[in-house]
Every structure is written in structure tokens, then in C-alpha cells.
Known about the structure:
This protein is mostly beta strands. The chain has a single domain (about 1-170), classed as Metallo-dependent phosphatases (Purple Acid Phosphatase, chain A, domain 2, 4-Layer Sandwich), CATH 3.60.21.10. It contains two helices and eleven strands; from the N terminus they run βαββββαββββββ. The strands form two sheets. Strands 3-2-1-9-10-11 form a six-stranded mixed β-sheet, with no helix packed on it. β5 (about 75-80), α2 and β6 form a beta-alpha-beta unit. It is globular, with a radius of gyration of 14 Å. Its EC number is 3.1.4.-. Its cofactor is a divalent metal cation. GO terms for molecular function: hydrolase activity; metal ion binding. InterPro entries: Calcineurin-like_PHP_lpxH (IPR024654), Metallo-depent_PP-like (IPR029052), MPP_YfcE (IPR041802), Phosphodiesterase_MJ0936/Vps29 (IPR000979).
Amino acid sequence: MHRVLIMSDSHGWTDEVQTIKERYKDDVDYMIHCGDSELDFDEQPMEGFKKVAGNCDFDFRYPNELDFEVGNLKFFVTHGHLHQVKTSLMAISYRAEEVGANIICHGHSHIAGVWRVVDHIIINPGSIRLPRARKEKTYAIASWDEEGSFYVNFYDINGYEVKDLACQTKLQ
């Protein structure tokens, strides 16, 4: 089973990012930060993350987007502000199609959730600092097996599962 930690929009918090990182570092294949960390690219809490720039990140070393493979899936990671994710998920879905990605991870809206658009699974982990539409400060863990079962579980900042956000689907 593959597992990936996904967080976003920590907006300057260092201790909380570090705590979550330490909680999962030996239990996940990758750690992703979808932008708006407001930390320097090489600042200690950000070490070990696949990370992108958000609209509040000004370190030029952050890329606007990343794509990479984990097992049999290709991930596309971006903050979302350049793809107008607060309006529609189609632009980000089209960009993922261009790079051949199955899984899209983004932030920007601070709204935790999972959506399927065409053949893409889109994950917004929410915000660990300033959540919108819910009170819980959240991050996500995506996991999947070789048979095509895909799971996304959300957790609050203390590591407790937010069960009503959980999602299970089949990969196509």
C-alpha cells in the first residue's frame, strides 16, 4: 500500500508543520505541501516535502507546479491560484491532463475535500491554520493498493481523523 501525506496553507506555522511531518515521516512514501507555507524553501520544517509556491510564498526557489510518480500513479501538485480553483476545477484538471497525471493536489481555497473530474482525483487537504467551510484545521493522507482501491483520509492538526471527509473510490 502506498501512502502520501498532503498539506497546504500553513501560513507561517513552523512547529505544527514539523509536528505533522514527524508524526508520519516513517509511514509515508512522500510528503507534499501545496503552497502558502510562507517559509523559505530550505527552512527546516519544509525539508523532505515535495513543495510548490502559493500566492503568499515569495521564495523564488519554489516551483509553481510539480509532477512525479508514486507507484503506479502520477501526481500533479500546484497551489491552485494560477488555475482559478476557487471558481472551477476544470483548468487544473486540463493542466493535469497535459502532464499525464491521475491525482491532483492543490490548496488555495482552504476548503478540504476530494472530487473526481473526468479521470482525475482532485484532493484539497484544507488548511492546517486557516480552514474555510469547516472548523477543523486539516491535512490529508492518500493511500492506494495495486488492485485500484484509492482512499483519502483527513486529519485534524492533532492527528485525529475527520471521518465525514473520508473518501474511497476505484482508480480507472
